[in-house]
Amino acid sequence: MSAEQDSPWGRVAEDGTVFVRTADGERSVGSYPEGSPEEALAFFTQRYDALAFEVDLLEQRIKSGALAPDEAVGSVKTVRAQVVEAHAVGDLDTLVQRLDGLGPVIEEQRQVRKAERAAKLAESKARKEAIVTEAEKLAGSQDWRNGANRLRDLLEEWKGLPRLDRSSDDALWRRFSTARTAYTRRRKAHFAEQHEKRDAARAVKERLATEAEKLADSTDWGPTAGRFRDLMREWKAAGPAPRDVDEKLWRRFRGAQDQFFAARDEANAELDREFAANAEVKEGLLVEAEALLPVTDLDTAKRRFREISDRWDAAGKVPRARIKELEGRIRKVEQAIRGVEDEQWRRSDPEKSARANEVVTQLQEAITSLEGDIEKARAAGDDRKVTKLEDELASRRMFLEAAERASADFSG
After folding, report:
1. Is the model's pTM score more than 0.90?
2. I want to staple 169 with a disulfide (CB 3.0 to 4.6 A). Which of 89, 127, 164, 251 is the partner?
């Protein structure tokens, strides 16, 4: 190299040494003895360009938040050392300034992340407290079907939440774990008890099914039907047996029950067919009985109804579907006759008749006394007293008329 090559950021000396210019002055960055000064300067400028590219890339990553603050500080420190000691020609001071300018950015991001972490921890604490509260409620509940699944879901959610400070996290975890343990113990005890009850129910239902099967062929309709009703009450009171046998036992029990009642219904249907003629006889008797109404001659009506009742009893049973209808009609006639009889007795009740006659007598005596008092008042010229006594006399005569009517009713 025979001539010196110069640029704003560095130069190549005549001996081929390359220098870079910085705020601290010039320093040698190397030499390029085999080429021209232009080639030497270009070589070290390319090194600068590569370094500038690395700074650009680091700036982008830091400003975008791609690096955590501590990682960003370490990267800036490393790259800054490379820039300060770089064997390159270019504006190294500006690169250093850019790197130093990232410090406030990193600090701001640090504060943002710190605030975000604090918010996440607060959110995590609130959620863990809510999980613990729900778990403690479940621990005292009897939701055996959904409670276990819900506690598993809460556990998975807990695992995905950020840890708190050790003291707080451990305290909440102990409460959560205690609630889960309490629920699990109560649930196991419940199902153990249910298992015992189902085994006991199986024994009861096996006995009931066996007895029902023995009764299935009975023709003692009334008592057996009553016994089946008792067996059904015992069956319901026994509770569920184990699922794999409960349905089988029910089919046995219900099959025996259906067999008995089907046979009874058939027997009753046969009786109903036999009793159909009796119903026709009683319909004819009802025509006679209902012709007695309204009652005009009580004694005749009573005598005729007794005759009809005797023939009614002699007619025998009727089909079950007709019992209510026919009995209702005959009872209606009987009640009508009895009502007339009761009315006549009421009107002829000696005690009531005597009381009515006594009232009539008392009123008559009171009227006679008032008439005498009126004559005396007139003789004395006491018109005011006469007027008062006459009003009282009119009132007593009205009461006497009513009493005489009542007495006539009883005597009639």
Report:
1. no
2. 164
